[in-house]
Design brief:
Layout: E1 16-22, H1 33-41, E2 45-46, E3 55-58, E4 64-69, E5 76-81, E6 90-95, H2 100-110, H3 123-127, E7 131-133, E8 138-141, E9 147-153, E10 159-167, E11 170-177, H4 183-194, E12 199-202, E13 213-219, H5 221-248, H6 259-263
Antiparallel strand pairs: 1-12, 1-13, 2-3, 3-4, 4-5, 5-6, 6-11, 7-8, 8-9, 9-10, 10-11
Helix pairs in contact: 1-2, 1-5, 2-4
Length: 268
Amino acid sequence: MKKASAGWGQAGQQAEQHYLVEPRHLAGGGDLGHVTEFLRASGWQDRSPRAGVPVIFDSPDRTVRIGYDPYTQPGGWTIRGTATGQQDAWHATLGKQVPVEIVAGFTDALTRPRSAHAPNVWEPLQQHGWDTEQGQHVTVMSPDGNAFVQFHQGERGQAYWWAAAQTEHGPAWNAVFTPTTPMHLVQAFTTALSDPQPVMRPRGHVPPTLRVRTTSVSVLPSQLSAWQQARVTAARAATWARTSWASTRPRKNPTGPYATAGGARTRR
């Protein structure tokens, strides 16, 4: 992250100490707003109770629900997709210590049109030096040996995607995706997981482990606000572009001259 120019922000602001933490998979949970504000700006409905816990968001078409509850066991994120067309119902759980930047890789992808390219869950990991281990289960291990992604094939035909991280104190978090989870979403997760860029945490919120590297930085509150707002603004712009295109798009006429061409379109 580039150092912001001096004097940026309102006069008299007091800089606050933050830390850039790497690897990101050991950075701790982080600010839930990184996920929820993007969803809200993308047109998702906030169904959370007034107290704000648990967090509940529904997609605009009500086919996906995202929840976060730190008080249930084991606690964390639960994401459910209903069966639609050729897509089976699916379910994903991510522990409460999964860094929000990694959670957002998955949840942000839910707000965007699906790419026409065939997804490859392993590709982002391999591009960033994660090692593949072949065995009963295909496993890809992080360069520091503290995180992995696995396609777990159990007995009786049971299978699921499993990711986890650990420190010298034991397990840090895990994430599980049913095999019916859309592959482009799992790839979005592995892309965010393997991103080598550090993530920022305020003082007092860096996990107590010797397996992370930290860089101290001074940040103005206005800088933090501007970075957060840029993410929200991008979500609003993308949502506006999609809804604007949908509202101005000519309706299909099954009996008109474009009936055949319209049916041949590839959906993204």
